[in-house]
Specification:
The protein has about 475 residues and is an alpha/beta fold. It folds into two domains: about 5-180 and about 350-410, D-Maltodextrin-Binding Protein, domain 2, CATH 3.40.190; about 185-345 and about 420-460, D-Maltodextrin-Binding Protein, domain 2 (3-Layer(aba) Sandwich), CATH 3.40.190.10. Helices cover about 40% and strands about 10% of the residues. The two termini are about 25 Å apart. Keywords: Signal, Transport.
Length: about 475
């Protein structure tokens, strides 16, 4: 799934809308670049590889970079350009931006003269399935094995956060570098908790006791955007991951049989069923859109709200001073949980590719290496207000509380991180299951019914 910040802010970007191709893109998706061909091998470097120049970039070879003009803007790409030209002063780097990636660049892919680096993002991205089938993407394994820009003693692979390689792998080859990194789940106000004398719980029984305290204090424990119930997907699958681990989440992502109906998944859903069953969902939530639900949370009417890394930036000045928005971790649900407290739903986004027919593929790889430098990634965090897929990048001194909490939560989670990919595998299925989750939040269906219906929809989508 593309990161939520890929669209201009503050306009809302529906996940489903992001995944839908434009009519033009849909018509061309079957053949993105012309004749079918096998995936292209890595091209011979344009010059001899050497220390500090692992891809053998020719000293004066120009590099063309095209960036998606979305919520992250373009300012963050300026520093990687400076880094590249500082190391290769004879090379000219040209950069442009567009919101219409497919309309602008697909003709160039077909003609065989695409840019060297493309940020293939947004609702008008070129279809990845077609790019893979056409052999239009350069395998990026050499990038992973190259020494990192900032510490030659480490490889680029060793600087990446969990899941970056997996989410960028298509048909067995790593071909997409997702540059941003976001966490998903639910949020609470640590300042409210401090005011009330509450501690964020590490066990599910304690979580339910906290919800009871919230309700007694006149605060609905939960709200959610009923108009966009897919927000619950991240939190509910986080609970499943906590109980069942990677095995069951992989089954859900791969549309397998008995994924949702696996007893461990049902156990997690049954645990959350206590929230709607006890009337702990803010009345009227079923009719709220995303910002309405988030405002109920920010004004103290609800204790928890689902969402991802974008929420704090999206709400902007609506976030009260000192609110101290913090990402939630799933409490331990059973004594047999597969994952420890601190396990988190997180995934890389904002995809970058090097076209296999680019004039300077070595330069394209080198530019991505510069982007993944500690300096380049830290600059991205400062400019975009979200984390980078480089785990070593530092946060700016003025980072907002929500971003600081995500960074700390990811450090605590370590490798206990997973991503939801049903949305990119089958966006209609994602939406259909989300509708059932909305009914679950309203108390109209129980956990067992949610599991059965989600599995029925999955089986039908799998065919």
């Amino acid at each position: 799934m593309n990161d939520r910040q890929s669209s201009p802010q503050p306009t809302r970007r529906s996940v489903l809308a992001l995944l839908a191709l434009s009519p033009v893109a849909g018509a061309l998706a079957g053949c993105a670049t012309g004749a079918r061909q096998s995936p292209a091998p890595v091209k011979t470097p344009t010059g001899p590889a050497a220390a500090g120049n692992p891809f053998g970039v020719a000293a004066d070879a120009p590099v063309e970079v095209v960036v998606f003009d979305g919520g992250y803007g373009q300012a963050y790409i300026k520093l990687p350009i400076e880094l590249y030209q500082g190391k290769h002063p004879k090379a000219r780097v040209t950069q442009s931006a567009t919101q219409k990636i497919q309309q602008t660049l697909q003709p160039r892919f077909v003609a065989g003269n695409p840019p060297d680096v493309v940020n293939n993002s947004g609702s008008n991205a070129i279809d990845y399935g077609a790019l893979v089938k056409d052999g239009a993407l350069l395998p990026l394994l050499p990038l992973l094995d190259a020494p990192s820009w900032s510490d030659p003693a480490a490889t680029v692979r060793e600087t990446l956060r969990p899941g970056v390689v997996e989410v960028g792998t298509r048909e067995g080859q790593f071909t997409v570098l997702n540059y941003s990194y976001g966490a998903y789940g639910a949020w609470y106000s640590s300042s409210l908790f401090k005011e009330k004398g509450w501690t964020y719980p590490q066990t599910w029984d304690a979580y339910l006791e906290l919800c009871e305290k919230m309700a007694t204090a006149g605060i609905a424990p939960w709200t959610y955007p009923g108009q966009f119930p897919y927000y619950m997907f991240w939190w509910l699958t986080s609970m499943i991951y906590k109980v069942a681990g990677k095995e069951v989440v992989d089954k859900i992502n791969n549309l397998d049989k008995n994924a949702w109906t696996d007893e461990r998944a049902v156990t997690a859903l049954r645990a959350f069923e206590a929230i709607p069953a006890n009337g702990w969902v803010l009345k009227g939530s079923s009719g709220l859109n995303h910002t309405d639900a988030q405002m109920q949370f920010l004004t103290g009417k609800a204790g928890f709200v689902p969402g991802g890394s974008w929420l704090e930036k999206e709400m902007g000045d609506s976030v009260p001073a000192g609110f101290d928005m913090s990402i939630c971790r799933v409490p331990s649900i059973t004594a047999a949980d597969d994952r420890p407290f601190g396990a988190l739903c997180a995934k890389a986004g904002e995809p970058y590719i090097v076209p296999s027919k680019a004039a300077n593929t070595a330069g394209g790889l080198e530019f991505l290496r510069a982007m993944l430098s500690d300096e380049g990634a830290a600059n991205f965090i400062a400019q975009a207000g979200t984390l980078s897929s480089n785990r070593n990048a530092k946060l700016p001194a003025d980072a907002k509380h929500g971003l600081v909490s995500i960074n700390a939560a990811l450090a605590e989670a370590g490798d206990n991180v997973f991503g939801v990919t049903v949305d990119t595998r089958d966006s209609k299925l994602w939406g259909d299951i989300a509708k059932v989750m909305g009914r679950f939040m309203n108390g109209d269906v129980k956990a067992d019914q949610l599991a059965t219906e989600a599995q029925r929809l999955t089986d039908a989508a799998r065919g």
